[in-house]
UniProtKB/TrEMBL annotation:
<dbReference type="InterPro" id="IPR027444">
    <property type="entry name" value="H-NS_C_dom"/>
</dbReference>
<dbReference type="Pfam" id="PF00816">
    <property type="entry name" value="Histone_HNS"/>
</dbReference>
<dbReference type="GO" id="GO:0003677">
    <property type="term" value="F:DNA binding"/>
</dbReference>
<protein>
    <submittedName>
        <fullName>Histone</fullName>
    </submittedName>
</protein>
<feature type="domain" description="DNA-binding protein H-NS-like C-terminal">
    <location>
        <begin position="52"/>
        <end position="91"/>
    </location>
</feature>
Length: 106
């Protein structure tokens, strides 16, 4: 039976051979993929459809009337709004209703 050190040496040699084989075969695979993409005229979107997915843009919620700066309400508050009442900086479409709508009873 091989000794512990002999087994470690064999493992080290196998790890080296595995790394070499992986490098060689991955280069060949990449070459094949590139060839097929070129041959069939695939676009980047077809090959990587998830790469084009963009996060939905967050609507601007607050603005500074003095400078026109805008903020979505996410992340660290800018200096012009930090420590102040946020409701004063809401965009007009974001203003809370001041009066309740009338309820019509038939």
């Amino acid at each position: 039976m091989p000794s512990y050190q002999e087994l470690l040496d064999q493992k080290e040699e196998l790890d080296r051979l595995i790394a070499q084989a992986q490098k060689k075969e991955s280069a060949e695979a990449l070459s094949t993929v590139r060839q097929l993409i070129k041959e069939f005229g695939f676009t980047a979107q077809q090959v990587f459809p998830w790469a084009e997915e963009k996060k939905a843009k967050v609507a601007v919620k607050y603005y500074d009337p003095n400078t026109g700066s805008k903020w979505t309400g996410r992340g660290k508050p800018p200096s012009w709004i930090a420590g102040k009442d946020y409701s004063q900086f809401l965009l007009p479409t974001q203003q809370p209703a001041e009066t309740k709508p009338e309820i019509l009873l038939w």
